[in-house]
Amino acid sequence: MLNDNEIKIIGQRTENKYKDTNEALDFTAQLLLNEGLVKDSYIEAIKKREKTFPTGLQFENYAIAIPHTDSEHVNSEAMVINILERPVKFGQMGAEDLYTDVNIIVMLAIKNKEKQVPYLKALIEIFQDEEKVNMLLKCQNNDIIEKTFKNYIKESM
């Protein structure tokens, strides 16, 4: 079970259209940087890792991306869930030269390396549940997104 103080969750609904993956990563990572949850090196590290190890995952009716990077760039455990009004192309995880239109970005900032796999498993469990995803996609308010997502994470951990 997850304690409230273990990880900071930031909910965000983005109405603007990003011109590319890097712009989406910049905006999402900046939310973590603004809160002091990551180091200045985090934004470049996340973009570099995404180029080498893409994180887009295609499900039947939607796609998500779970960008993350090494713990040396992180100050405190956190996640941003950024729900996009207009999808952005991300490279597909484990597939060279395949792309998917991502509706949701969940950016991880994990300080304790041992927690990364459990968080990733929890995220996959959440995003395999189309009802939960549809609920998130319908959320219009950042606070509601944050609260809903935090509850899903707690249930899945």
Automatic annotation (TrEMBL):
This is PTS sugar transporter subunit IIA. Residues 1-152 form the PTS EIIA type-2 domain. Gene3D superfamilies: Mannitol-specific EII, Chain A (3.40.930.10). Coiled coil: none annotated. The keyword Transport applies. SUPFAM superfamilies: Phoshotransferase/anion transport protein (SSF55804). PROSITE patterns: PTS_EIIA_TYPE_2. Keywords: Sugar transport, Transport.
